[in-house]
Specification:
mainly alpha
């Protein structure tokens, strides 16, 4: 068998049909989780939770990222132990499997980190906790988590959120329940505020 060589000056293709786009079989965990979320009516439930924090349907302007896509991206960060929204955005943009999980085709861009930050700032912590409580409860009931017990009350869900057969060997090993969500959101908010303050101090770029 001859050795293949990487083409250094390959000409860009001007037109690609949908059939020519690369396909992914998807990661078994995310496929199972997506099926579980679909059967539970996850997207409609999340949209109802988030609706009070958006303008009425039909308002002029571009629609927001669907809440179901936003929270799926947070799930990726939660389950894979990614500690920043930049990291989550890069991971989702780079992975065919995660694009399938999000429901974003290759012809569209996945949400970037600034979009995630805007949605995070719009939705209160209580909505984030309620959504993750729902997801972890569903996953535990279907045996997707290693935790032996899941105790649900008005404020917390206690569960070992490490995945069975995770995409990475140490995925989310140290994360537990909703306290991890609270800490993660707080850290992200502080990082964004520091970055914005630094940009204001630097002033506009020179032209």
């Amino acid at each position: 068998m001859g050795m293949g060589r990487r083409e250094r000056d390959r000409q860009d293709v001007l037109f690609v049909t949908a059939e020519q786009l690369p396909k992914s079989q998807g990661h078994a965990f995310y496929k199972r989780l997506n099926r579980l979320l679909s059967e539970a009516g996850f997207d409609r439930e999340v949209e109802k939770l988030c609706e009070p924090y958006y303008q009425p349907t039909g308002t002029r302007g571009r629609p927001s990222v669907p809440p179901g896509v936003y929270f799926r991206m947070l799930m990726v960060g939660y389950f894979e132990g990614i500690g920043s929204q930049r990291g989550i955005a890069w991971r989702c943009a780079d992975s065919l499997s995660l694009r399938e999980f999000l429901g974003v085709p290759l012809t569209e861009a996945t949400p970037d980190h600034s979009t995630l930050s805007r949605v995070r700032d719009r939705l209160p912590l209580e909505v984030h906790q309620e959504v993750f409580r729902l997801v972890l409860q569903l996953a535990a009931q279907q045996g997707l988590l290693k935790g032996k017990t899941v105790a649900v009350d008005s404020t917390t869900l206690e569960a070992d959120a490490a995945m069975k057969s995770p995409p990475s060997a140490d995925a989310a090993r140290h994360r537990r329940g909703l306290e991890g969500v609270r800490h993660w959101l707080d850290e992200e908010g502080r990082s964004d505020r520091k970055r914005r303050r630094a940009e204001r101090r630097r002033g506009p770029p020179l032209r």
